[in-house]
Amino acid sequence: MKCPKCGNENPDNVWICGSCRHVLRDNVCVNAKTSKLAIISLALGILSVLLFVLAGIPAIVVGIISIVRIGRSGGMLRGKRIATAGVVTSVVLMGAFFLLWSLDAPPIPNDYTLTDIHSAPPECAESFEILKTLVKEELDHPGAPAIGLTQQDVDMSGEIRAVIEEGAAAEISEILGDYSKDIERVWANMEQARYAIGRLDAFAEIADLTELTAHYKVMRMSNLLELARFYKVYAFLKIEQRNVEVLTADLIELDSVLRKLSVNARTLFAKLICLLAMKENIETVNAIVNDAGTVIKTVELLSEHFVPFTDEHMSLRSSVLSEYLFLKSSISKAMGSNAIAKTPLFKRNSTLRLHRNHLEDWLNTQCHLGNARSDRLSVWPDIYPFDEHDPLQEHSLLSFIYRCYNPLGSRAMGTAGFFRGADPARTTHTLVKDDLLQIVLKKRLGKEVSMKARAYGEEYIVDIDNRKILSPGPDGKTDTKDDIALPINPEVLGWRDSKQRLR
């Protein structure tokens, strides 16, 4: 049928021109159907308040298709207003949803700053420049050239220490004899490192003034561990040569520096290196004290320095807080340079609040510190109906909601782990070894000892048959891999019973 108004050809069964909407037939009753797509569009538009783009975008697409089909149906379909309502509803609700979703949690009030971290006084600032001569070098250099060790020297040290830890006395003597000239050569090459250690020991504290920014450059703090390990190798050679006194002053200086640095270490890695190096020194001193050729005067000198560790030496608090401040700086840098991080996909304040809550949980496990805060922070905007402090631990619908709310921030929680290595058991292990050394020192000097255990049992154990003093470790059982032990020479220390637990 041709439209008399615009001339457009229309199907015979229509009563309205599809082009100009002119009525082609009067008094014709048409049973127009409501478009199903229009109804679907409205339903999806309403659901977009919960499903956001998952329902909103299909609502808009379906609504537009419905409107076009209704317009072309020649009056056979109706529901244009319904479809329009679906489109408008989805746009309005998605807009409202986006505004709510893009909201971040408030900034953290009264957050930690550098003032909360233990720091050395200004007069010790030069000490950090001296420290950098020992630990600052390119990461691709083999060995530890800053302290005078090549890669071959490090490998030799590791080989000798493996025999010292597992081999019999004859095997230890043999390998020390084979490498004696090389050990002496390396010790001479480390003269500059030993001189730097002596200069560092002259300071009351060592000022680790590392900048806690996203531009922080990792230094080779592991050099200090290699230094302590080679001191152990050299000590065993001097024990073999009955000339250990030449090492005593150097060993005391090294341990003094490690103790001072441990108090001020601003990264968890540096702190853990100090703890490991101090454990190496404990084992070195134990070997010296247990040797019959070591004179009492040397034992007394070592005993005067190797006193029990303090809480400041062992505490990981400052290092963990430093890692948290470093994380904050890294996030700020990402917000400034990463385009994706600038979008609502990453909620800066919410992410920091989540990390801060984990930090508080960790601090609250350090009961002896007495400095932990008890407040927990909401990770949601104030207008949200949730108040859980760590929704990711819920493993439920709330965890899913938070991952949708802060997809990049929640993902960062699985990769950052800024205090993942801050297990309190690390310090307990070192403290137990220190307790065992104190017992050995007192026995060698003929003083009264207490075998009361710090952890993992009521008393430390002296096992004469296996020539060791030990703590059973976390599993509470002796002769297992987690035993914490020091080898002893029962004859030198005056222990004669086969196996005993002494007070």
Key traits:
mainly alpha, two-stranded parallel sheet, 19 helices, 3% strand, elongated
pLDDT averaged over residues = 83
Query: Ranges with pLDDT <50 over ≥5 residues?
Result: 498-503
Sheet-strand content, in percent, reads: under 5%
| Element order: H for helix, E for strand | EHHEHHHHHHHHHHHHHHHHEEEHE
Rg estimate, integer Å = 36 Å
- State the total count of DSSP E strands: 6
Count of helix runs: 19
Strand order of the largest sheet: 5-4-3-6
Structurally, the number of domains stands at: 4
Specify the overall morphology: elongated
Task: Kindly state the percentage of residues in helix.
Answer: 40-55%
Distance between the termini: 113 Å
Structural class: mainly alpha
Question: Largest sheet at a glance?
Answer: 4 strands, antiparallel
Task: Note down, in words, how this protein is organized.
This protein is mostly helical and 503 residues long. The chain folds into 4 domains: 33-101; 114-320, no CATH class; 338-415, no CATH class; 436-500, no CATH class. The chain has 19 helices and 6 strands. It has helices at 36-51, 53-72, 80-101, 125-135, 151-166, 169-178, 180-189, 191-201, 222-240, 245-264, 268-289, 296-305, 311-314, 317-337, 348-364, 397-405, 407-415, 424-444, 490-493; strands spanning 33-34, 77-78, 461-463, 468-471, 484-487, 499-500. The protein has a 4-stranded antiparallel β-sheet. A hairpin with a 4-residue loop joins strand 3 and strand 4 (468-471). The longest helix has 22 residues, at 80-101. The termini are far apart.
